[in-house]
């Protein structure tokens, strides 16, 4: 009997022992299981505390993506928002988010106990005075951001004597103000404003959270910044509760501890990392491996060539940077609003400002009189200076000492990583303006000093040649004729030089009246008929002239006719006819002058209207001419809103066409004379602009 009892004892004892062991450790097992499932076990006192504080008012940062922010639809989002949602669900309480106050006022509200807790905050000595903290549940390094051409920054100490941007009331603000009291801090309302301050040259560096800085630069499209260094600080981010509620902190900590690693990874992946597909298709893997092997072979084959190209590109970039830094002309780059984001040393030297004084400011601030658009008030936008035809504009610059100086400005549009940017290239033309002034004074003086004696010489020779002073011996007459003709040529040259000077200085005067075309053409024919007889050339009007009027300066337009008709006569063979006719073309008239001369050489046609140019120097000297007539002719025609063109050929001679706009005034009526000064001092790079 005893043996049977002992047998039963030894049979069931292990089972009973295991049962007792499992029962004793039930709490441990259930606790581990609860942890894996995200459940929370609270004491009776903790449950009573939650019943008392079942609604907690949260202070959040509304503009701190990806950690937390309030979107356009007033939804609380970000990493912290997901943690808050899990804590709220597991504790069965209400965490009410304040979505109205900016961050500095959120901090003050918690201090004043208008709000109860922070959702996500860094522990600092200043905050220890009014809140108690949970353990951090998010951690990121605090980094230094600078312009991309700045060297590596070895910690905050390397930023001494420089301006550092931080977000007002952030941990970075508190820590730097406490540990580096001599540091110049630029306080920004949010991370974006701090980063833009560095991008625009208002600050030298930004100190803030790595994740936030990276996201803002990517979303806003700030391309001229980089992470240049790391600080000794980290953003160890947790929740914090008002100081008079210490019993709430351990409850919140239990809720945070209940969040599983899987849940944490999912939150992190949603807001920080790129997610990858977990399912594996081994057929795809095999294909990738085979294809990858081929690609690797190809890469190895071309590796050296690619390395050479990289080296060449680096060399080119270095060369471009050297040109940018050493070119004599000033270079600035700015956005569509004219805000400067980069300048070269020449720009600093020309304006007399430092790089940091110009960065982030509108380029218009350094120009006293940008050209104004017709009919608009205010300065023309800098983007309208865009160099489309190889031309530049002349404007007045403003130096740091308040003095003004002339600059020549050309703007080009460029795209940098998809963003529209503009590059302005300019030079100080003070010296050139002075040279032009001296040249004009010299030309004017010489021209006026020559005109008076030439008039006397020509008049005297004319009187002698006409016999007023008695008969001229035959052996002298040819020499007097030569002297008279040369004095006439010199007078023509002086008059043309004076006209060019007036055009360049903007002082060419036009007396605008109504001109009846038929009378005008007949007057031109009468005036130059004698000249044609001297050249043994006849001017012949081959069409009737329509009864129509034009508006213009009659004397200047007669000067146009004189140049064209005299050229036609000079280059026509003797006993030939120069034909004139008038055509009506829409709301314009076209005056046509045709000779049967040798035509204009092809290589000379493109420079026909240039100054001091003649097609055949030796031949033209025999025929007379200054080389200025066609240039003056073109300017006068264009100042009358007209056009001039020509057709030429070795067999067909040359025909000039002068097109002028007609007016609505009827023939026979008159209008008062309107005097105007037209023209603008001619830019050596730009095109002439019409005024008046």
Question: How many individual β-strands?
Answer: 25
What's the CATH C level of the domain at 508-678? Alpha Beta
Helix content: 40-55%
Could you list the spans in which at least 5 consecutive residues all have pLDDT below 50? 1-37, 273-280, 371-380, 617-621, 665-675, 677-692
Radius of gyration: 44 Å
Q: Write the CATH homologous superfamily of the domain at 508-678.
A: Histidine kinase-like ATPase, C-terminal domain
Task: List the topology elements.
Elements: H1 2-24, H2 26-37, H3 44-52, E1 55-59, E2 63-64, E3 68-70, E4 76-77, H4 79-91, E5 94-98, H5 103-111, E6 117-122, H6 125-128, E7 131-133, E8 138-147, E9 163-167, H7 171-179, E10 184-188, H8 191-199, E11 205-209, H9 210-220, E12 225-242, H10 248-257, H11 261-271, H12 282-326, E13 330-334, E14 340-343, H13 345-351, H14 355-358, E15 393-398, E16 404-416, E17 419-428, H15 430-466, H16 474-505, E18 508-516, H17 517-534, E19 537-541, E20 549-552, H18 554-570, E21 576-585, E22 588-594, H19 602-605, H20 617-623, H21 629-639, E23 643-649, E24 653-661, E25 674-678
Parallel strand pairs: 1-5, 1-6, 9-10, 9-11, 19-21
Antiparallel strand pairs: 2-3, 3-4, 6-12, 7-12, 8-11, 8-12, 13-14, 13-17, 15-16, 16-17, 18-20, 18-25, 21-22, 22-24, 23-24
Please provide a written account of the structure.
The chain has 21 helices and 25 strands. The strands form five sheets. Strands 1, 5, 6, 7, 8, 9, 10, 11 and 12 form a nine-stranded mixed sheet that branches. The chain is elongated. With 692 residues, the protein is α+β, with helices and mostly antiparallel strands. The N terminus and C terminus are likely disordered.
